UniProtKB/TrEMBL annotation:
Residues 78-432 form the ABC transmembrane type-1 domain. Gene3D superfamilies: MetI-like. Belongs to the binding-protein-dependent transport system permease family. Keywords: Cell membrane, Membrane, Transmembrane, Transmembrane helix, Transport. It is a multi-pass membrane protein. The chain crosses the membrane at residues 21-43, 82-102, 114-135, 312-333, 354-375, 413-433. It holds the Pfam family BPD_transp_1. It comes from the Bacteria. GO terms for cellular component: plasma membrane. This is ABC transporter permease. GO terms for biological process: transmembrane transport. It is found in: Cell membrane.
Protein backbone atom coordinates (compact mmCIF):
# COMPACT_ATOMS: atom_id res chain seq x y z
CA UNK A 1 0.00 0.00 0.00
CA UNK A 2 2.76 2.46 0.99
CA UNK A 3 4.91 1.63 -2.03
CA UNK A 4 1.98 2.09 -4.43
CA UNK A 5 1.22 5.53 -2.90
CA UNK A 6 4.85 6.63 -3.36
CA UNK A 7 4.71 5.45 -6.95
CA UNK A 8 1.64 7.54 -7.61
CA UNK A 9 3.24 10.57 -6.10
CA UNK A 10 6.59 10.09 -7.82
CA UNK A 11 5.26 10.50 -11.35
CA UNK A 12 7.40 11.82 -14.24
CA UNK A 13 5.28 14.97 -14.36
CA UNK A 14 5.99 15.82 -10.75
CA UNK A 15 9.67 15.18 -11.19
CA UNK A 16 9.72 17.51 -14.23
CA UNK A 17 7.93 20.21 -12.27
CA UNK A 18 10.47 19.87 -9.45
CA UNK A 19 13.34 20.15 -11.93
CA UNK A 20 11.78 23.29 -13.44
CA UNK A 21 11.51 24.84 -9.99
CA UNK A 22 15.14 24.03 -9.29
CA UNK A 23 16.24 25.52 -12.62
CA UNK A 24 14.15 28.65 -11.95
CA UNK A 25 15.66 28.96 -8.47
CA UNK A 26 19.17 28.57 -9.94
CA UNK A 27 18.54 31.38 -12.43
CA UNK A 28 16.93 33.59 -9.78
CA UNK A 29 19.63 33.02 -7.19
CA UNK A 30 22.14 35.58 -8.59
CA UNK A 31 19.41 38.20 -8.80
CA UNK A 32 18.28 37.41 -5.25
CA UNK A 33 21.87 37.64 -4.00
CA UNK A 34 22.28 41.05 -5.66
CA UNK A 35 18.90 42.18 -4.34
CA UNK A 36 19.90 41.16 -0.85
CA UNK A 37 23.32 42.78 -1.08
CA UNK A 38 22.20 46.03 -2.68
CA UNK A 39 18.71 46.51 -1.18
CA UNK A 40 17.83 44.30 1.77
CA UNK A 41 21.17 44.50 3.59
CA UNK A 42 21.46 48.35 3.33
CA UNK A 43 17.86 48.73 4.54
CA UNK A 44 18.50 46.41 7.48
CA UNK A 45 21.77 48.12 8.36
CA UNK A 46 20.19 51.60 8.14
CA UNK A 47 17.42 50.49 10.47
CA UNK A 48 19.98 49.02 12.88
CA UNK A 49 22.30 52.07 12.69
CA UNK A 50 19.42 54.46 13.34
CA UNK A 51 19.14 53.03 16.86
CA UNK A 52 22.67 54.13 17.82
CA UNK A 53 24.28 57.47 18.52
CA UNK A 54 26.73 59.47 16.42
CA UNK A 55 29.68 57.20 17.26
CA UNK A 56 27.71 54.01 16.65
CA UNK A 57 28.74 52.58 20.03
CA UNK A 58 25.86 53.62 22.29
CA UNK A 59 22.33 52.31 21.84
CA UNK A 60 19.85 55.22 21.97
CA UNK A 61 16.67 53.51 20.80
CA UNK A 62 14.14 55.91 19.29
CA UNK A 63 16.09 59.06 20.27
CA UNK A 64 17.17 59.69 16.68
CA UNK A 65 13.57 59.49 15.49
CA UNK A 66 12.56 61.95 18.21
CA UNK A 67 15.31 64.28 16.98
CA UNK A 68 13.97 63.95 13.44
CA UNK A 69 10.58 65.23 14.58
CA UNK A 70 12.05 68.10 16.60
CA UNK A 71 14.75 69.30 14.19
CA UNK A 72 13.53 72.48 12.39
CA UNK A 73 15.79 71.80 9.38
CA UNK A 74 14.21 68.36 8.92
CA UNK A 75 10.72 69.84 9.30
CA UNK A 76 11.57 72.31 6.53
CA UNK A 77 12.82 69.41 4.41
CA UNK A 78 9.56 67.53 5.04
CA UNK A 79 7.49 70.57 4.08
CA UNK A 80 9.48 71.14 0.89
CA UNK A 81 9.28 67.45 0.00
CA UNK A 82 5.49 67.65 0.38
CA UNK A 83 5.45 70.65 -1.98
CA UNK A 84 7.54 68.68 -4.47
CA UNK A 85 5.24 65.64 -4.27
CA UNK A 86 2.10 67.73 -4.79
CA UNK A 87 3.34 70.16 -7.45
CA UNK A 88 6.12 68.63 -9.58
CA UNK A 89 4.45 65.35 -10.70
CA UNK A 90 1.12 67.08 -11.37
CA UNK A 91 2.68 69.85 -13.47
CA UNK A 92 4.97 67.49 -15.40
CA UNK A 93 2.09 65.07 -16.08
CA UNK A 94 -0.24 67.90 -17.10
CA UNK A 95 2.30 69.36 -19.51
CA UNK A 96 3.06 65.90 -20.89
CA UNK A 97 -0.66 65.36 -21.53
CA UNK A 98 -1.03 68.71 -23.28
CA UNK A 99 2.07 68.13 -25.41
CA UNK A 100 1.00 64.59 -26.34
CA UNK A 101 -2.48 65.70 -27.44
CA UNK A 102 -1.36 68.80 -29.33
CA UNK A 103 1.54 67.17 -31.16
CA UNK A 104 -0.87 64.67 -32.72
CA UNK A 105 -2.42 67.52 -34.68
CA UNK A 106 0.67 69.17 -36.16
CA UNK A 107 2.83 67.98 -39.01
CA UNK A 108 6.07 68.62 -37.16
CA UNK A 109 4.89 66.82 -34.01
CA UNK A 110 7.73 64.29 -34.11
CA UNK A 111 10.38 67.02 -34.15
CA UNK A 112 8.62 68.78 -31.27
CA UNK A 113 8.49 65.56 -29.23
CA UNK A 114 12.20 65.07 -29.86
CA UNK A 115 12.98 68.57 -28.57
CA UNK A 116 10.79 68.14 -25.47
CA UNK A 117 12.24 64.70 -24.69
CA UNK A 118 15.85 65.77 -25.25
CA UNK A 119 16.41 67.05 -21.66
CA UNK A 120 15.97 63.45 -20.47
CA UNK A 121 19.35 62.73 -22.08
CA UNK A 122 20.99 65.26 -19.74
CA UNK A 123 22.11 64.22 -16.28
CA UNK A 124 20.64 65.91 -13.21
CA UNK A 125 24.04 67.42 -12.48
CA UNK A 126 24.33 68.99 -15.94
CA UNK A 127 20.73 70.24 -15.79
CA UNK A 128 21.44 71.79 -12.40
CA UNK A 129 24.47 73.65 -13.77
CA UNK A 130 22.43 74.86 -16.75
CA UNK A 131 19.63 76.20 -14.58
CA UNK A 132 22.03 77.72 -12.08
CA UNK A 133 23.10 79.94 -14.98
CA UNK A 134 19.53 80.41 -16.24
CA UNK A 135 18.47 81.73 -12.82
CA UNK A 136 21.53 83.95 -12.35
CA UNK A 137 20.47 87.31 -10.89
CA UNK A 138 22.57 89.31 -13.36
CA UNK A 139 20.39 89.94 -16.47
CA UNK A 140 23.55 89.88 -18.60
CA UNK A 141 24.16 86.24 -17.59
CA UNK A 142 20.83 84.77 -16.50
CA UNK A 143 18.35 84.06 -19.31
CA UNK A 144 15.32 84.23 -16.98
CA UNK A 145 16.15 87.70 -15.71
CA UNK A 146 17.19 88.86 -19.17
CA UNK A 147 13.65 88.11 -20.36
CA UNK A 148 11.97 89.57 -17.28
CA UNK A 149 14.04 92.76 -17.34
CA UNK A 150 13.50 93.16 -21.09
CA UNK A 151 9.72 92.90 -20.74
CA UNK A 152 9.68 95.17 -17.68
CA UNK A 153 11.79 97.88 -19.30
CA UNK A 154 9.55 97.81 -22.39
CA UNK A 155 6.60 99.04 -20.31
CA UNK A 156 8.43 100.84 -17.47
CA UNK A 157 11.87 101.96 -18.69
CA UNK A 158 14.44 102.82 -16.06
CA UNK A 159 15.77 106.34 -15.67
CA UNK A 160 19.20 107.35 -16.90
CA UNK A 161 19.85 109.15 -13.60
CA UNK A 162 19.11 106.71 -10.74
CA UNK A 163 21.95 108.01 -8.54
CA UNK A 164 21.53 111.75 -9.25
CA UNK A 165 21.02 114.04 -6.25
CA UNK A 166 21.50 117.70 -5.28
CA UNK A 167 24.96 118.74 -4.08
CA UNK A 168 25.84 120.99 -1.17
CA UNK A 169 24.18 124.43 -1.00
CA UNK A 170 21.99 123.38 -3.93
CA UNK A 171 18.88 125.38 -4.88
CA UNK A 172 17.08 122.00 -4.87
CA UNK A 173 15.72 120.13 -1.85
CA UNK A 174 14.03 116.74 -1.40
CA UNK A 175 10.27 116.80 -1.99
CA UNK A 176 9.47 113.25 -0.80
CA UNK A 177 8.95 110.04 -2.81
CA UNK A 178 12.36 110.50 -4.45
CA UNK A 179 11.58 113.85 -6.15
CA UNK A 180 13.44 117.16 -5.78
CA UNK A 181 11.98 120.68 -5.89
CA UNK A 182 13.44 124.19 -5.98
CA UNK A 183 13.60 125.99 -2.65
CA UNK A 184 12.22 129.19 -4.13
CA UNK A 185 9.67 129.93 -6.88
CA UNK A 186 11.11 130.75 -10.32
CA UNK A 187 10.43 133.89 -12.34
CA UNK A 188 9.97 134.47 -16.05
CA UNK A 189 13.03 136.05 -17.64
CA UNK A 190 15.36 134.78 -14.88
CA UNK A 191 17.16 131.52 -15.83
CA UNK A 192 16.77 128.74 -13.24
CA UNK A 193 19.72 126.58 -12.24
CA UNK A 194 19.11 122.93 -11.35
CA UNK A 195 22.50 121.37 -10.51
CA UNK A 196 22.81 117.65 -9.71
CA UNK A 197 25.70 115.35 -8.85
CA UNK A 198 26.13 111.60 -8.58
CA UNK A 199 25.76 110.61 -12.25
CA UNK A 200 28.70 108.51 -13.43
CA UNK A 201 30.22 109.80 -16.69
CA UNK A 202 29.62 106.45 -18.42
CA UNK A 203 25.97 106.53 -17.30
CA UNK A 204 25.19 109.85 -18.99
CA UNK A 205 22.59 109.47 -21.76
CA UNK A 206 23.75 109.20 -25.34
CA UNK A 207 23.65 112.52 -27.13
CA UNK A 208 24.30 114.58 -24.00
CA UNK A 209 26.43 117.62 -24.73
CA UNK A 210 28.37 120.19 -22.77
CA UNK A 211 25.99 122.10 -20.52
CA UNK A 212 25.03 125.61 -21.57
CA UNK A 213 23.64 128.46 -19.52
CA UNK A 214 20.04 129.21 -20.45
CA UNK A 215 19.30 132.58 -21.99
CA UNK A 216 16.61 134.73 -20.40
CA UNK A 217 13.43 134.95 -22.49
CA UNK A 218 10.74 137.50 -21.58
CA UNK A 219 7.48 135.85 -20.54
CA UNK A 220 9.02 132.38 -20.29
CA UNK A 221 10.86 130.40 -17.64
CA UNK A 222 14.18 129.04 -18.86
CA UNK A 223 16.89 127.12 -17.07
CA UNK A 224 19.57 124.44 -17.13
CA UNK A 225 19.75 121.04 -15.45
CA UNK A 226 23.25 119.61 -15.52
CA UNK A 227 25.92 117.46 -13.86
CA UNK A 228 27.59 119.96 -11.53
CA UNK A 229 30.92 118.17 -11.42
CA UNK A 230 34.24 118.97 -13.09
CA UNK A 231 36.71 116.13 -13.67
CA UNK A 232 40.01 116.70 -11.95
CA UNK A 233 38.51 119.23 -9.52
CA UNK A 234 37.94 122.91 -9.91
CA UNK A 235 34.82 124.61 -11.17
CA UNK A 236 32.33 126.72 -9.27
CA UNK A 237 29.55 125.14 -7.21
CA UNK A 238 26.02 125.71 -8.56
CA UNK A 239 27.39 127.35 -11.71
CA UNK A 240 27.57 125.98 -15.27
CA UNK A 241 31.27 125.40 -16.01
CA UNK A 242 32.65 124.79 -19.52
CA UNK A 243 33.52 121.11 -18.99
CA UNK A 244 30.28 120.03 -17.31
CA UNK A 245 27.56 118.02 -19.09
CA UNK A 246 23.85 118.66 -19.51
CA UNK A 247 21.42 115.99 -18.28
CA UNK A 248 19.59 115.43 -21.55
CA UNK A 249 16.08 114.01 -21.23
CA UNK A 250 15.52 115.11 -17.62
CA UNK A 251 11.81 115.88 -17.03
CA UNK A 252 10.99 119.18 -15.31
CA UNK A 253 7.58 120.10 -13.88
CA UNK A 254 6.31 123.50 -12.76
CA UNK A 255 4.17 123.09 -9.64
CA UNK A 256 1.88 125.80 -8.34
CA UNK A 257 -0.63 125.36 -5.49
CA UNK A 258 -0.02 121.62 -5.45
CA UNK A 259 -0.73 120.98 -9.14
CA UNK A 260 1.46 120.76 -12.22
CA UNK A 261 0.91 123.74 -14.53
CA UNK A 262 3.63 123.06 -17.11
CA UNK A 263 6.23 120.46 -18.06
CA UNK A 264 9.41 120.38 -20.14
CA UNK A 265 12.20 118.00 -21.10
CA UNK A 266 15.85 119.04 -20.99
CA UNK A 267 17.65 119.32 -24.31
CA UNK A 268 21.01 117.75 -25.10
CA UNK A 269 22.84 120.64 -23.40
CA UNK A 270 20.55 120.52 -20.35
CA UNK A 271 18.58 123.66 -21.16
CA UNK A 272 14.78 123.78 -21.02
CA UNK A 273 11.95 126.26 -21.56
CA UNK A 274 8.60 126.52 -19.76
CA UNK A 275 5.65 128.72 -20.76
CA UNK A 276 4.46 131.80 -18.87
CA UNK A 277 2.19 129.62 -16.72
CA UNK A 278 5.31 128.51 -14.84
CA UNK A 279 6.01 132.05 -13.59
CA UNK A 280 5.91 131.98 -9.77
CA UNK A 281 5.88 128.17 -9.60
CA UNK A 282 8.43 125.89 -8.00
CA UNK A 283 10.27 123.53 -10.36
CA UNK A 284 10.16 119.84 -9.53
CA UNK A 285 12.29 117.02 -10.83
CA UNK A 286 9.84 114.07 -10.45
CA UNK A 287 10.87 110.73 -9.01
CA UNK A 288 10.55 109.11 -12.45
CA UNK A 289 13.86 110.79 -13.32
CA UNK A 290 15.61 108.83 -10.59
CA UNK A 291 13.92 105.44 -10.81
CA UNK A 292 16.37 102.63 -10.13
CA UNK A 293 16.88 100.16 -12.95
CA UNK A 294 14.87 96.96 -12.48
CA UNK A 295 17.39 94.30 -11.50
CA UNK A 296 15.16 91.29 -12.16
CA UNK A 297 13.62 88.60 -9.99
CA UNK A 298 15.62 86.90 -7.26
CA UNK A 299 14.88 83.40 -8.54
CA UNK A 300 17.32 81.75 -6.17
CA UNK A 301 16.29 83.75 -3.12
CA UNK A 302 14.62 82.19 -0.06
CA UNK A 303 11.08 82.70 -1.42
CA UNK A 304 11.37 81.42 -4.99
CA UNK A 305 14.18 78.88 -4.82
CA UNK A 306 11.90 75.83 -4.44
CA UNK A 307 9.54 76.81 -7.32
CA UNK A 308 12.62 77.60 -9.44
CA UNK A 309 14.15 74.16 -8.86
CA UNK A 310 10.76 72.51 -9.51
CA UNK A 311 10.70 74.38 -12.83
CA UNK A 312 14.02 72.80 -13.77
CA UNK A 313 12.67 69.36 -12.83
CA UNK A 314 9.54 69.85 -14.95
CA UNK A 315 11.72 70.92 -17.89
CA UNK A 316 13.52 67.58 -17.64
CA UNK A 317 10.61 65.22 -16.98
CA UNK A 318 7.75 66.68 -19.03
CA UNK A 319 9.22 64.86 -22.05
CA UNK A 320 9.15 61.56 -20.18
CA UNK A 321 5.47 62.08 -19.35
CA UNK A 322 4.72 63.14 -22.93
CA UNK A 323 6.24 59.98 -24.45
CA UNK A 324 4.36 57.59 -22.14
CA UNK A 325 1.08 59.45 -22.53
CA UNK A 326 1.61 59.64 -26.30
CA UNK A 327 2.00 55.85 -26.39
CA UNK A 328 -1.26 55.49 -24.48
CA UNK A 329 -2.95 58.01 -26.75
CA UNK A 330 -1.99 55.98 -29.80
CA UNK A 331 -4.01 53.06 -28.39
CA UNK A 332 -7.19 55.12 -27.88
CA UNK A 333 -9.90 53.97 -30.36
CA UNK A 334 -10.30 56.76 -32.93
CA UNK A 335 -13.88 55.76 -33.70
CA UNK A 336 -14.91 56.87 -30.19
CA UNK A 337 -13.44 60.32 -30.74
CA UNK A 338 -15.00 60.65 -34.18
CA UNK A 339 -18.38 59.46 -32.90
CA UNK A 340 -18.30 62.12 -30.18
CA UNK A 341 -17.48 64.82 -32.73
CA UNK A 342 -20.28 63.63 -35.01
CA UNK A 343 -22.67 63.87 -32.04
CA UNK A 344 -21.73 67.55 -31.69
CA UNK A 345 -19.13 67.43 -28.93
CA UNK A 346 -16.52 70.18 -29.01
CA UNK A 347 -12.79 69.50 -28.80
CA UNK A 348 -12.68 70.43 -25.13
CA UNK A 349 -15.57 68.07 -24.37
CA UNK A 350 -13.89 65.26 -26.33
CA UNK A 351 -10.67 65.85 -24.45
CA UNK A 352 -12.28 66.06 -21.00
CA UNK A 353 -14.95 63.38 -21.27
CA UNK A 354 -13.31 60.79 -23.55
CA UNK A 355 -9.56 61.26 -23.99
CA UNK A 356 -8.67 61.84 -20.34
CA UNK A 357 -10.83 58.97 -18.94
CA UNK A 358 -9.39 56.54 -21.49
CA UNK A 359 -5.87 57.69 -20.62
CA UNK A 360 -6.47 57.44 -16.85
CA UNK A 361 -4.40 54.22 -16.39
CA UNK A 362 -1.43 55.75 -18.23
CA UNK A 363 -1.76 59.02 -16.31
CA UNK A 364 -1.71 57.12 -13.03
CA UNK A 365 1.45 55.25 -14.10
CA UNK A 366 3.21 58.50 -14.98
CA UNK A 367 2.01 60.28 -11.86
CA UNK A 368 3.04 57.50 -9.47
CA UNK A 369 6.43 57.11 -11.17
CA UNK A 370 7.12 60.83 -10.82
CA UNK A 371 5.95 60.87 -7.20
CA UNK A 372 8.46 58.14 -6.33
CA UNK A 373 11.11 60.02 -8.28
CA UNK A 374 10.60 63.37 -6.53
CA UNK A 375 10.62 61.75 -3.10
CA UNK A 376 14.31 61.04 -3.77
CA UNK A 377 15.17 64.36 -5.47
CA UNK A 378 18.66 65.49 -4.49
CA UNK A 379 20.88 66.51 -7.40
CA UNK A 380 18.93 69.50 -8.68
CA UNK A 381 18.44 71.03 -5.25
CA UNK A 382 22.07 70.52 -4.29
CA UNK A 383 23.43 72.08 -7.50
CA UNK A 384 20.93 74.87 -8.21
CA UNK A 385 20.27 76.25 -4.71
CA UNK A 386 23.17 78.47 -3.51
CA UNK A 387 24.64 77.60 -0.14
CA UNK A 388 22.98 80.61 1.50
CA UNK A 389 19.47 79.32 0.68
CA UNK A 390 19.95 75.55 0.80
CA UNK A 391 18.21 75.52 4.17
CA UNK A 392 15.16 77.10 2.49
CA UNK A 393 15.26 74.69 -0.48
CA UNK A 394 16.07 71.65 1.65
CA UNK A 395 14.41 68.28 0.91
CA UNK A 396 14.67 64.95 2.73
CA UNK A 397 17.27 63.37 0.45
CA UNK A 398 19.49 66.45 0.68
CA UNK A 399 19.03 66.61 4.45
CA UNK A 400 20.01 62.93 4.63
CA UNK A 401 23.26 63.68 2.78
CA UNK A 402 24.05 66.77 4.85
CA UNK A 403 23.34 64.99 8.14
CA UNK A 404 25.14 61.71 7.43
CA UNK A 405 28.11 62.93 5.36
CA UNK A 406 28.39 66.69 5.82
CA UNK A 407 30.17 68.75 8.44
CA UNK A 408 29.64 67.36 11.96
CA UNK A 409 28.24 64.13 10.46
CA UNK A 410 25.80 62.07 12.52
CA UNK A 411 25.18 58.75 10.79
CA UNK A 412 22.73 57.64 13.45
CA UNK A 413 20.43 60.60 12.74
CA UNK A 414 21.12 60.27 9.00
CA UNK A 415 20.02 56.63 9.11
CA UNK A 416 16.83 57.67 10.89
CA UNK A 417 16.11 60.13 8.07
CA UNK A 418 16.78 57.34 5.55
CA UNK A 419 14.28 55.09 7.32
CA UNK A 420 11.73 57.94 7.36
CA UNK A 421 12.23 58.43 3.61
CA UNK A 422 11.73 54.67 3.06
CA UNK A 423 8.53 54.73 5.12
CA UNK A 424 7.20 57.59 2.98
CA UNK A 425 8.09 55.89 -0.32
CA UNK A 426 6.79 52.40 0.52
CA UNK A 427 3.02 53.27 0.46
CA UNK A 428 3.38 54.78 -3.01
CA UNK A 429 5.26 51.69 -4.20
CA UNK A 430 2.57 49.40 -2.76
CA UNK A 431 -0.13 51.34 -4.59
CA UNK A 432 1.87 50.98 -7.80
CA UNK A 433 2.40 47.23 -7.29
CA UNK A 434 -1.30 46.69 -6.56
CA UNK A 435 -2.23 48.62 -9.68
CA UNK A 436 0.19 46.51 -11.79
CA UNK A 437 -1.23 43.26 -10.41
CA UNK A 438 -4.78 44.42 -11.01
CA UNK A 439 -3.89 45.25 -14.61
CA UNK A 440 -2.18 41.88 -15.12
CA UNK A 441 -5.22 39.98 -13.83
CA UNK A 442 -7.59 41.53 -16.36
Amino acid sequence: MGSSTRAVRDTPGRRAAARRRLVAAAFLLPALVLLGALVVQPIGFSLYRSLFDRSGDTFVGAANYTAVVRDPAIRTALRNTAVWVVVAPAVATGLGLVFAVLTERVRWGTAFKLLVFMPMAISMLAAGIIFRLVYDHDPHRGVANAVVVGVHDTFAPASAFPKARPGRDSPLEPAGDGAFVTREPVRAGVPALLPLVGVAPEALPKGARTAAGARPVPGEVTGTVWQDFTRGGGGAVNAVDPTETGLAGMRIEAVKDGRTVATATARADGTFTLPAAADGARLRLPASNFREAFAGVEWLGPVLVTPAVIGAYVWMWAGFAMVLIGAGLAAVPRELLEAARVDGAGEWQVFRRITVPLLAPVLVVVLVTLVINVMKIFDLVFVIAPGAVQDDANVLALQLYRTAFGTDADQGLGSAIAVLLLVLVVPVMLVNIRRIRRGASR
